[in-house]
Amino acid sequence: MGNTAIRVENYSYTYPGAEKPTLEDISFLIEEGEFVLLIGASGSGKSTLIQSLNGIIPKIRGGETSGEVWAGGQNVADFRVQEMAARIGLIFQDPESQLCSLFIADEVAFGPENFRVEKGAILKKVDEALRYVGLEKAKRKYVYEVSGGQQQRLAISSVLAMGPEILALDDPTANLDPVGTAEILSVLAKMNSLKKTILLATPLLDEFIHLANRIIVLHQGRVFANGTPREVIGKHGKQLKEELGVWIPQISEVELGLRSKMTLNDYMPLTAEEAYEKYKGFRFVPGRCNRPGSVSEPVVRVQNVDFCYPDGTHAIQDVSFNINKGRLTAILGPNGSGKSTIAKLIVGLLPLKEGNVEVCGMDVKKSSTAAITQKVGFVFQNPEHQFVRDTVKQEIAYSLEVLGKSQAEVDAGVDEMLQMFELEEYATRHPFGLSGGQKRRLSVATMLVGKPELLILDEPTYGQDLRNVETFMRLVKDQLSNGVTIVMITHSMRLVQDYADDVVVMRYGKLSYVGAPEGLWDDEEFKQDATLKAPPLQELTRLLERGGHEIWKGTRRVDEFVDQAAAGKEV
Amino acid sequence: MILKNIKFTYLRHDSVLHRTDVISKLLVVILVSVAVYFFRNPVQVLPMPILLFFLAMALGRVRFSVVFWSFSVFMVFGLFVAFFQLVSHQTGEVLARVLFLKITPDGLHLAELFVLRMATIGCAALTFLWTTNPKEFAIGLVYIGIPYRFAFAVLVALRFLPLIQDEISKIKDAHLIRGVKPEKGIKGAFHNWQRYLFPILVNGLRKSETTSIAMDSRGFGLFKTRTYTDEFRWTASGIALVAVVCIVIVVCGYIWGFGFIQPRYNS
Prior knowledge:
The complex is a heterodimer of chains A (571) and B (267). Chain A has 571 residues and is α/β, with parallel strands linked by helices. Helix content of chain A is 36%, strand content 21%. In chain A, the strands form four sheets. Chain A has a six-stranded mixed β-sheet with strand order 6-7-8-3-9-10, with helices on both faces. A six-stranded mixed β-sheet of chain A has the order 16-17-18-13-19-20, with helices on both faces. A four-stranded antiparallel β-sheet of chain A has the order 2-1-4-5, with helices on one face. In chain A, strand 1 (4-14) and strand 2 (23-31) form a beta hairpin. Chain A starts with a strand and ends with a helix. Chain B is mainly alpha-helical and 267 residues long. Chain B contains eleven helices and two strands. A two-stranded antiparallel sheet of chain B has the order 1-2. Chain B is globular, with a radius of gyration of 21 Å. At the A-B interface, helix 3, helix 4, helix 5 and helix 6 of A face helix 9 and helix 10 of B.
């Protein structure tokens, strides 16, 4: 450490036309070689702050600023955005839209070409930068031929080719599966070991906290906390989770849970290994928790399904499983494993040729999508794709109108959904004018208003903060208690461990596991599998078991673990 | 199946047309587009799309199914124009009647002519698109004096075409789930596009904004000029291609005459 990489002094920013500033009186320093995590709920100002670091704000987006931002020893206000490129590299959330070339090598060459670097030197830089992120073999591929994780690595390498010492990343793993996230993790770890300064905005503290030497928390445009991860989480963890709606490490949630039931020292563990060292002297009383039994009739029967896309991709290979009534089944697997394909086959969006699918008593081969969707709701990853009307109210009403309901039934259904999903005050707003969380709730409301027997959710928590996820999952649980069967396609293992009743795991188009979520980690194959990362709580219980502790095999939620530790203290 | 074969993007292959320089290919597109405007006899225009169709397959290694279905999209627009010509020429001798529509010699002649003109321009543009790496296109444009900012705008637009195609397919599926069936017929297609257009535009604008700031953040536009890892070079195949097309145009003009010669029918 030594020189300052980023200095922000009393910085405030107001978007053009906005009444209130998005960032207010922000001040902090980041030293060279630091790895800093920037966290905060949706709308806290993380992206705005990152875009202020190279002058995109206010030079491109407009608006009013006060205070100063320095990066790489330069006052950002004195330079054009383009000039800052050699000092600070920015990586954005969506990997696809930040790439402007058709081929991987061209993308990396783009920056040095803009700086008028001589051709031979550019070619050398391209090779070096691609080697650095492990993409040298993909050099001649199209940018859209590679996975999301590889696209983000490409974005990083195209920035590295210009040689900046600072990298600011705005939630770069939001669109990625666990494999893609692990790829970014390893690249960032490597960069940081070479003393590059990294500022990373991410909600995935479990994945990145071990690399960070500092956390900056933004709340409503102000710096809420700034310190080492242990200081910030130790001092503000409860507040971050419960009041600010920010994800904290799962292990810290365990610690906070334990503190509410027993007296513990102030040391805040952040990783499973640290927690093991702290809790290895504890006594646990294994206690079984009440979970809904798995005995219920199947709503979906998938039998020997095989599917090939017209381009020859064998997406599904002899897959069979059932989805039982009134349960939440999570479909897991890396990108391209066949999760979305199987969901589309269930609702008839893809033509089923090999095998059989029965959904809500209908044979998919003999039923139209229109008939299936009278009983099955499907919420797409991007809710905007499903909007067909001009107001929130009309959007919900439309689902009932196509079912031929009377005006009275439509009005009653719309009112019920607006209230249930807390959308009443936005009833006359255009669906595209809602926030991310509201759009997601609206898309579910449009599906639930028709009272489906089965609801399929494709990545429902993608891009959502903790508060939105908790609100959303509360609504999902209400539906489960009403007897609706839910299928959730997700990458979030924490969501699976906390809420799912059953799990279906797909890999390379094949079924690799069907059963309870806790059983997944008994399988040696999955323990070693990078495509499914066990949540830290699972790692902790595994470490404790190895250390001779007896913990209920079915433990998967923080409260279940805490109860067993608390019971042990009382014995 | 049909959608999978409609390609409005660069198709990577190693073919004669792929290796041909971009300026020559661009010249061919311009030459045939201008020539068919001056040709007043449908028989004159006919060799052009046929020639281009076979050029794409034989020298560009583009699959027949891709050529056929992508080309068909252009033909839909051609038929629109043809219909307009038939409707707007309702006086004079009547060759036939289709419902309310009188088919007159002038109307028929111009309908044929416009369909073939659209076919030619469509085929030329598609063959160019399929066989030209957008980056080479941008470099070619810079070579002929277009400022590189404009040339790269074209490159980025071409880069996003496959993404838009993917987005349309997702929106179609999502609307189907909502119970919105794609409408059939010309009016139906118009309604479908009305629905698809808004989300495409909103997402397109969002993506293009990210692309634009990502490009600026990597120094795009810093200097008046920039370097390139690839350079523009004229190719023998390009010159030959231009020569062949010129010969075909001259031969067609010689046999059937150019625009200043009276057409078969008075229009």
